[in-house]
Design a protein that fits this description.
The complex is a heterodimer of chains A (270) and B (345).
Chain A lengths: L2 H19 L4 E2 L2 E2 L7 H34 L3 H8 L2 H8 L1 H19 L4 H30 L16 H20 L3 H24 L3 H20 L4 H28 L5
Antiparallel strand pairs in A: 1-2
Helix pairs in contact in A: 2-6, 4-5, 4-6, 5-6, 5-7, 7-8, 7-10, 8-9, 9-10
Chain B lengths: L2 H13 L7 H4 L17 E8 L5 H12 L3 E8 L1 H13 L7 E4 L2 H9 L8 H4 L12 E13 L22 E3 L4 H14 L1 H12 L2 E3 L3 H9 L5 E2 L1 E2 H10 L5 E4 L9 E8 L4 H10 L2 H11 L2 E2 L30 H9 L4
Helix pairs in contact in B: 4-5, 7-8
Classes of the chains: A mainly alpha (270), B alpha/beta (345).
């Protein structure tokens, strides 16, 4: 191997090691920008983007009224959404509304493609716009908390939970992401998140949890391995999948209380 | 004064700086587990790579060590054991070392690091605290987990379970297993080592016809308990924890005899950095307090001489596990290939 070749190999190895140490978080549409850690500085941009999206949706509906589906070009809806920075601001701060935005985008896109009545189209538009404004409100609130130092820095690198309670919190966030990915029509990715969450997070907690409430663990086992993946694979509605996830999150809250109480009562190591 | 009490008193004095003894001199011949009171304070910086497992119990142990040693600055990187193993190997290839210690939940992962020549030799009196079969020059097993056959007690009794794992395909019992699970794959690696690839492939093929797959081994045990399958293949502690949460659970444990079916695997720690500080950190994990804590709270098997498991936990002397160098469980790739070849994965 030449010296240059050796150096290149060395650099590749070093980069590999560095990548393994801090893997950047990549969401559906590329890496999260650092702007998510400076929300206040970007609120104006986000507001402009939401207005811009609303205008684009309005224009699309006008084109639909004038020239039908071909003129409307509904595929552009997803492109518009993926273009804006606001996308990752809401995705990293409040995933449930992020999922609603995708639900609204695809609701409107589907209604146009199916040549729905203008009343139905307007209904879908209202749902989308409500979700967008609700999302902007959530990001503004998050910006205030961020400014006061009340929120953790948004991870632009993946972190691992340090204990069972943190693992349960992480599970709830991942379950929200399942709904978001399903709303994005990424069913396979949604199911993968369910499986990864089970194997990498819940599986590490359930051994401790089962000695406290075996029935609860049994329920969650079934939810993770049967109920939720099957609902996604069978093409249930987003609202149905969201209901399953919300029920699971309630059980996770129960698990959280049980583990918290158990930790208080556990004997000291030394 | 009894010898052990005398040694502890010496250690306490040495830790306080009253005697010019180092820890190796103090613990030159520890026949039994050492109390944390006998250990020196930890001072300095360490980076620990911690394989995820056992909920927060390993974290509790680490926090207790930190609380006891305020002058120890411990950085922790957490992740799945397999990922951390890959990170250590990649870092070494790149000529960097970020981890000073690696605590893995699986001895196969430890074996990959020791095989790469990255683990430092540990003091003989440290490894000498462990039971004979768990002494290795460059890593320390912390706690053990036994492969078992959980069975449904409404349908079967222990004497109906074959004591030869290789005989399971010849029974009429329905079986639950979790082939994607790391503990199961280590068990198959153990079988490959003991029986050879051909026999293992035949066993897997025969079992595959009657086995129902589960994502994890707790799922296997729960399926056995509710009668979905007659028996399962799983580490011992899932059954014990289930019974702790549901005392009338319809499940109990059976053990095979001197084969992979009752393999004792271990979590383990190794030092990647030379010096007393990493070795002394490891000593804390071998104390009778930590060994007892993990046995009582996580149902894991203590591996240090003189620490008895609490009532209800299987004792190693009552079973007959096979003699396998646990680091050989690192030979995982051929296991995965074989499981794929026969359609189990």
């Amino acid at each position: 191997m030449t010296i240059n070749g050796f150096k290149r190999q060395y650099l590749i190895s070093l980069l590999t090691a560095a990548t393994l140490f801090t893997a950047p978080v990549t969401f559906a549409n590329g890496p999260v920008g650092e702007h998510v850690n400076h929300l206040s500085d970007n609120i104006e941009t986000y507001s402009q983007e939401v207005n811009w999206l609303s205008t684009k949706v309005d224009e699309m509906i006008s084109r639909y009224q004038q020239g039908g589906v071909e003129e409307a070009k509904p595929d552009l809806l997803v492109e518009y959404w993926e273009e804006v920075k606001f996308h990752s601001a809401i995705e990293t701060n409040y995933v449930p509304v992020y999922a609603s935005i995708w639900q609204g985008l695809f609701g409107l896109k589907g209604a146009i493609e199916e040549k729905a009545s203008i009343e139905e189209i307007r209904k879908q538009q209202r749902f989308l716009e409500q979700s967008l404004w609700q999302a902007l409100g959530a990001v503004k609130l998050a910006a205030q908390y961020q400014e006061k130092g009340l929120t953790d820095k948004v991870a632009t690198t993946q972190a691992n939970p340090g204990n069972s309670l943190e693992a349960l919190d992480a599970i709830k966030s991942r379950l929200d992401r399942v709904v978001a990915k399903y709303a994005e029509k990424l069913s396979k990715e949604a199911v993968n998140i369910v499986h990864d969450t089970y194997l990498n997070l819940f599986e590490g907690v359930e051994g401790e949890l089962i000695s406290l409430d075996a029935d609860l663990v049994e329920d969650l086992e079934k939810d993770f391995n049967v109920v939720l993946p099957q609902a996604i694979q069978n093409g249930k509605s987003i609202d149905e999948v969201r209901d399953i996830v919300n029920t699971m999150k309630g059980k996770i809250d129960t698990a959280h209380s049980l583990l918290e109480k158990s930790a208080e009562e556990r004997k000291d190591v030394f | 004064m009894q010898r052990r009490t005398f040694i502890q008193s010496l250690a306490a004095l040495a830790a306080a700086g009253a005697l010019p003894l180092n820890i190796s001199q103090v613990l030159a011949d520890p026949a039994n587990a050492v109390s944390v009171e006998a250990l020196p304070r930890l001072e300095g910086e360490l980076t620990l790579y911690l394989g995820r497992g056992e909920g927060g119990l390993y974290e509790n142990v680490i926090k207790a060590i930190e609380d006891r040693n305020p002058d120890l600055k411990l950085r922790i990187r957490r992740g799945p054991t397999a990922s951390l193993t890959n990170a250590i190997l990649a870092e070494a290839k790149a000529g960097v070392r970020r981890a000073d210690l690696f605590w893995a939940v699986d001895s196969g992962a430890v074996g990959m690091v020791t095989a790469a020549g990255l683990a430092q030799a540990l003091p003989a009196e440290l490894t000498g605290q462990l039971r004979d079969e768990f002494r290795f020059p460059d890593w320390a097993p912390i706690t053990g987990r036994i492969r078992t056959i959980p069975f449904n007690t409404e349908r079967l009794t222990a004497d109906k379970i074959p004591n030869d794992i290789m005989a399971l395909p010849d029974t009429d019992y329905s079986v639950g297993w979790a082939p994607a699970y790391a503990a199961f794959q280590s068990f198959v690696t153990g079988m490959r080592i003991l029986e050879g690839d051909k026999v293992t492939a035949e066993w897997l093929t025969a079992m595959n016809r009657k086995a129902k797959k589960f994502a994890g081994e707790l799922g296997v045990v729960m399926a056995v308990e509710r009668g979905e399958v007659d028996i399962g293949l799983a580490n011992h502690y899932y059954t014990l924890r289930l019974k702790a949460g549901k005392p009338d659970a319809n499940v109990d444990l059976a053990f095979t005899n001197n084969d992979a079916g009752c393999l004792v695997n271990a979590s383990g720690i190794l030092a990647l950095k030379e010096g007393e500080l990493p070795a002394n950190f490891i000593r804390y994990l071998l104390t009778k307090e930590v060994q007892s804590y993990l046995a009582e709270e996580a149902c894991e098997i203590p591996l240090v001489n003189g620490v008895l498991p609490p009532e209800g936990l299987p004792r190693l002397k009552t079973i007959n596990p096979p003699q396998i160098d646990l680091t050989r469980l690192a030979d995982l790739r051929p296991t995965i290939d074989l499981m794929r070849d026969v359609g189990v994965l």
